[in-house]
């Protein structure tokens, strides 16, 4: 599995690259703080293979993010098993993002 740092993610976003960032936390966590442009898709849906809404990303680079990096790592493994070609885990998740002082949306 590939990993990406929050600094690398921020650089991609700052350069205007297309970023498919999936936040795998729960809705209440997402509401508290999330990275602008991320798409909420809880881990539970991914683990039960309810990924129809993500099928359009199967051949795209997908970055997965959670609170600290653990749930997003599990999500990346499941998506890889389901045939997603390019998944990466955002190491440290939203905690690392906020620790760097990067902006969040609420």
From TrEMBL:
CDD domains to which the protein is assigned, alphabetical: RHOD
| InterPro entries (UniProt xref) | GlpE_sulfurtransferase, Rhodanese-like_dom, Rhodanese-like_dom_sf
The record's listing under Gene3D superfamilies reads:
Rhodanese-like domain
Show where the Rhodanese domain sits.
15-106
Recorded hits in Pfam families, A to Z, give: Rhodanese
**What is the recorded name of this protein?**
Rhodanese-like domain-containing protein
- Organism, as annotated: Flaviaesturariibacter amylovorans
